[in-house]
Specification:
This protein is α/β, with parallel strands linked by helices. Helices cover about 45% and strands about 20% of the residues.
Amino acid sequence: MSKVPTTLEELSGIRINPDAFIVIFKTEWNDAICQKLTDGCIEVLNEAGVKYKVITVPGAVEIPFAVNQYWKTYSNITATRPSAFICFGCVVQGGTPHFEYVCNMVSQGITSLNLTLPIPTIFGVLTVNNMQQAEERVGGTEGHKGREAAAAAIKMIGLFNEE
């Protein structure tokens, strides 16, 4: 499996739309992890010169609703029309079925957004067994999923905007 590009140098050759605007949704739940995801994402967006906005929602289940409402409200306003959405959350396995319900709801919601909206919605929700696994995914042994989400958004924006 090839490494996901996470720096501007690694993204070279990918057309970066100078008008791109990405809206990042992050959850309050497990905020320390979600903030690390967001910080890594913002580093890549800043390196690429991509404008962004961060919106905080209570939890992962609320992400699809918030994305959909943002699109309905701002898609016709040029200054705030997004080119992509990035969604960050962290759902940690517990002792009840709640984990499965939340993971299913947010993944189905984001899949639905990807099939109905005309712009990409990047899935950056960590679904882990414990906090150690979460930490490994925000700059540890498993890379930085926030940086990877930014790279994916940039690539997806460029994918359908090529001349």
